[in-house]
Amino acid sequence: MKNKVAILLGSKTDKPLIEPSMPYYDFFGIDVEVHVMSAHRNPKEVAKFASEARDNGYNILVGSAGMSAHLAGALKAHSTLPVVGIPLPGGMMDGLDSLLSTVNMPKGVPVATVSMGKAGAINAAVLCAEIFSLNNSELVSKLSDFKKNGCML
Q1: What is the pTM of this model?
Q2: Ramachandran region, residue 108 (left: φ > 0; alpha: ψ -120 to 50; beta: rest)
Q3: Sign of the C-alpha dihedral, residues 150, 152, 135, 63?
């Protein structure tokens, strides 16, 4: 199984917040592609992307958005793949609205929500590595080294 992740951003202005996570995906040997699609502005495209993601070789979807952050939930609504949500700062109370929108999912529609912003983007990369490590002893070793190094690259 190839370790392939799609990160979907709600806006192109969100790219600087996820860029710090790219070295982590690289370190753990995870192929990652970044796409910009808004759950509100491009709902049909988001639904199509999510529903076809498994057939297109993705193993995990990551939705990263701010304000009324419905992107991760919209991805999960149309996919049986694991979905990780990264709430982004901005909006009300510097991201509280985004956090609540991402973490408050109905039963049966799970989104694994990580912390907000750049730290959340890095945590999403590490979480993806941990998920892939369930069937990959090389990743188990890399994660162990990562932990021994104080969770630093």
Answers
A1: 0.96
A2: left
A3: positive
Cα separation, 145 vs 74, in Å, equals: 35
Place of tokens 């808004």: 38
Rg (CA), the chain: 15
17-74 per-position pLDDT tens digit: 999 999 999 999 999 999 999 999 999 999 999 999 999 999 999 999 999 899 999 9
User: 4-148: what fold?
Assistant: Rossmann fold (3.40.50)
Residue spans per domain, the chain: 4-148
Strands of 15-132 (E only): list them: 31-36, 60-65, 83-87, 112-113
Task: Evaluate if residue 1 carries a pLDDT over 70.
Answer: no
Q: Residue 4 and residue 136: Cα distance in Å, rounded?
A: 14
